[in-house]
């Protein structure tokens, strides 16, 4: 195999490796985006449940509703009467435990409650402290038996998402450095194949930009093609993943939250890949026209 064929084979293998590197980064963006979407969606369903005492007066309810209306972070509240709670409880247990659903003495123990939701503009990561503060204030009021909110699992999921994002960022940095290194080696091999031509160009007084331009274009093209292919691979993985979520994981009801990365992010990845390819090329050819090729021949 002559040097030109070897160079073509190296370029092809480099394209495969760099495409795989970019695909890993694109997949990391896709995973991170959808985890955040799911966290935001589940965070919107978190609400505060205020269980009322059976002896609470109408005045006590009015004062409690005034508190809800005046609170700067509460967006919506709804009274669930004991009759409504009993009806919902019977409906839920009808097919699982029909005998319990007919036990009137047991069902009378279900209290009335208020379902309280925060304003939609409040960030998910800020909900925990706000709900905890509201719960602390309400527990000290008369006429309230208990206050609960399902925030623990959201906090754990949020911590999980943060850990995943950190890991993906670290992987992205490592893959980014690896892709630049691989592309640099490919351009360096191309420089060696064309070094005789470079020497001739240096001898006839060609400018640095004239000599560097073909290699910079080669690196930019490599980055462009690799990043574009990686987005196609990432979209294929997204299509398969969403199909699995909509069929085998339909009980989670998160299909609507699974989406592909935005068009502007696709453009950023492709443009970034092109720039990275040009940068990797520049690192190899920056000394050309400074006697680099002639010196390498003497060596």
Helix content: over 70%
Number of strands: 4
Instruction: Quickly give the structural class.
Output: alpha+beta
Approximate shape: elongated
* Quaternary structure: single chain
Mean pLDDT: 77
The spatial strand order of the largest sheet comes to: 2-3-1-4
Largest sheet: 4 strands, antiparallel
Helical segment count: 11
Structure in a nutshell:
The protein is of the alpha+beta class.
What does this protein structure show overall?
By secondary structure, the protein is α+β, with helices and mostly antiparallel strands. It has eleven helices and four strands. Helix 1 runs antiparallel to helix 7 (152-193), helix 1 crosses helix 9 (208-247) and helix 7 (152-193) packs parallel to helix 10 (263-285). The chain starts with a helix and ends with a helix.
Helices and strands in order:
Elements: H1 3-44, E1 48-52, H2 58-70, E2 74-80, H3 82-93, H4 98-101, H5 104-107, E3 113-118, H6 124-139, E4 144-149, H7 152-193, H8 195-203, H9 208-247, H10 263-285, H11 292-298
Antiparallel strand pairs: 1-3, 1-4, 2-3
Record keyword descriptors for this entry.
299 residues, alpha+beta, 4-stranded antiparallel β-sheet, 8% strand
